[in-house]
Every structure is written in C-alpha cells, then in structure tokens.
Write a structure and sequence with these properties.
- By secondary structure, the chain is of the alpha+beta class.
- The protein has one domain.
- Helices cover about 20% and strands about 40% of the residues.
- It is built from two helices and six strands, in the order αββββββα.
- Strands 3-2-1-6-5-4 form a six-stranded mixed sheet, sandwiched between helices.
- The protein starts with 6 loop residues before the first helix and ends with a helix.
C-alpha cells in the first residue's frame, strides 16, 4: 500500500489509475450518481484504503476507499468519516467497509 501525505494526493493518484467514479453511501448501497449505478455489498471489492487524520483534531479522521465493481465495469472512490463523525449504520455496506479498517 502506498503512503500519501494528503487526501488530495491519494485521490489524484487513484484517479490516474482509473478510479474515476465518485461514490457515496446511500442506505444499503454505494451510489455512483454520474454512472447511475448502485452497488450493493456483493457487487464490489475494496482494493485499497487510506486513513487521513484531521490537521487540527486527530479524532476527525477520513478513510478513502478504492472500490472496484467488475459486475458494473466501474472503479471509484468513497470518502467516509472515521472516529467521532463516523456513520454507525449496521448495513451490509458499513460492515464490509469496517472490515478493512477495524482490526
């Protein structure tokens, strides 16, 4: 896994490697609005993830996921809060995301 100094640097690198879809959490799926696609837990794999701490408050941490769906021929990124502002949903999507950074 690569090391990046900032979230922007990681996004730039992933974009160059084809992770161009902007994904957001949408209940029990990840939504790629521009592609008009919803990804459910079984539709994608997490290829990489990177944690970034807030500059002023270490509890304000973001996680960047590099996600690929071979089913939908799509590669994209999801930025999710971690720590104080994390989504605490118990959906299959959250369980899959949490599996990668809670160990």
């Amino acid at each position: 896994m690569k090391n990046f100094e900032s979230l922007v640097d990681a996004l730039r690198d992933l974009n160059k490697r084809g992770y161009t879809a902007d994904l957001t959490l949408a209940g029990d799926s990840l939504e790629a609005k521009n592609e008009k696609v919803n990804l459910y837990a079984d539709d994608f794999e997490i290829n990489e993830f990177y944690k970034f701490e807030g500059a002023t408050n270490p509890s304000d941490t973001s996680i960047l996921y590099a996600i690929e769906s071979k089913k939908h021929n799509l590669k994209g990124v999801l930025i999710n809060a971690y720590g104080v502002y994390a989504n605490t949903s118990s959906s299959a999507i959250e369980a899959k995301l949490n599996h990668y950074h809670i160990k």
